[in-house]
Every structure is written in C-alpha cells, then in structure tokens.
Amino acid sequence: MLSIVICEDDLRQRKKVEDIIIDELKSSKLNMNIDLSTDSPKEVISYIDTCKGKTFIYFLDVELGSEINGLELAKQIRKYDPAGYIIFITSHAEMSFLPFQYKVQAMDFIIKFDANSIDARIRECINAAYKDYENLKTLDSNIIPITFGSRIINFNLNDILFFETTSRDHRLRIHTCEEQLEFYGTLKEMEKIVPSYYYKCHRSYLINTKKIKEIDKDKLVIRMINNEICYTTSRYLKGLLKNV
Q1: Is residue 55's pLDDT more than 90?
Q2: pTM of structure
Q3: 183: how many CB neighbours lie within 10 A of its CB?
Q4: Is the distance from CB of 161 to CB of 224 less than 8 angstroms?
Q5: Membrane spanning segments where (predicted)?
Q6: To pair with 96 at 20 to 30 A between CA atoms, which of 62, 130, 220, 229?
Q7: Nearest Cα to Cα of residue 9 among 69, 93, 78, 56
Q8: Are 222 and 231 in contact (CB under 8 A)?
Q9: CATH label, 144-243, candidates 3.20.20.190, 1.10.10.10, 3.20.190.10, 2.40.50.1020
Q10: Residues 78-113: pLDDT tens digits?
Q11: Under 8 Å CB-to-CB from 139, ≥6 apart: which residues?
Q12: CA angle 120, 121, 125 (to 5 degrees)
C-alpha cells in the first residue's frame, strides 16, 4: 500500500500539511495513511530503511534546520525508494531548480506563501501519485515470469493467446501473436496463476478468452485472433461460452 512521509521542522507548517493530507484522504476515500511525520531527516532514513520495497509519497521541506537539508534527504531517499513520489514544500522560490541539480526527480516544488495554492497542490499531488501507483500496480499484476532454460521472460498476460500441452511430459507451449516457445510446466499449474478470463477448454488447451476470434459450436473449434486453431469438447463448451 502507498503511504505518506512528512519531514518539516516548522511544527505549525507540519501540522498544516498533515491536516490537508488527512482531509484529502478522507474526502477522496484513498486507501493511504501518514506513516511518519517528523522534523528529523535521520528518522525518515531510519524508517524507510526498515520498509524496504515499500513506496511512499514524501512531503519535504527544503530547509530542515539540520545538517541534512531536504534536497540531501531526497537523494538518500532515492537509495531506498527509487519509485517514491517526492514533493518539496519551501519558502524559497529561488531553490526550485535545485532538485534537477541533485537529480532526485521531484514530483512538485510547492511554495509556502500562498495558503490556497499549498492546499490545492498538495491535494493534486496526492491524487496524481495515487493514480500513478495504482496504474503501475495493475500493470505489474498482469506480468508473469516464465523460465526458458537459462532465461526468464516476463509476459503480459493480456498478450498471451493460449497455452497448450506438447508431446513431451511436463512441457507446455506458449502462443502469442509474435512467437511460440516451449517451457517446463503443466496446465494445472498455469490455471492457478492466470486470471479468471483464461479458460481450460480442453485437456490440452488453456486459452485467453479475450483473444478468441470465433467459436464453431458444431465442430468444437476455437479460432484465435491470429487465426490459430484450438479445440474444445462438449464437456467444456458450456463453460467456455459463459466465459466469453
């Protein structure tokens, strides 16, 4: 789950940022929390070090009254959370070019002077980061790694047409519009991995129902979008038609 970290040495400003974030999370019904709100850059680094692999939205002041400023903190954050969303909040507009020099890929640089602007920009950043994170998560969930000898290839499940058994035991052939490749596996194992729009239409075929071009119910033949042929049986046909 995406979470939020705040680092701001001005207590009043930090409370203001917290209140805006909490209100936006409630009003937009976003499944997020503020995991840490502090004035200490070292506390931020220590915390995210214990959360390896987790992604955060960071709201950082640039001047933190510490030996580590917000830009240096952001550089450290990138070592632990390269995909994190970093937003700077500062009173110094002239510093807005510095994130580029530090190469920290900031999402936004918000100036504190305008209270209405701070409110709107914080809300925009939260929603934009949340949407981007959910899109990436959905993309990742569609990826399946398959081992071919010494190679591991990531396939997008939406691009696969079907899996079929081969004449060799525990060997399957994967079909896409571009290629066919054989690997060790069984249809029973693949059924546990693939999403519900895949259907075992025959003891030899596990097909992506989104890639069906037509079904001949009399001949029990399935034509895929690339005109390859798969077969079904009377036993599996009814279930297939429900899934199309």
Answers
A1: yes
A2: 0.61
A3: 17
A4: yes
A5: none
A6: 130
A7: 69
A8: yes
A9: 2.40.50.1020
A10: 889 988 999 999 876 555 455 445 556 788 888 887
A11: none
A12: 120
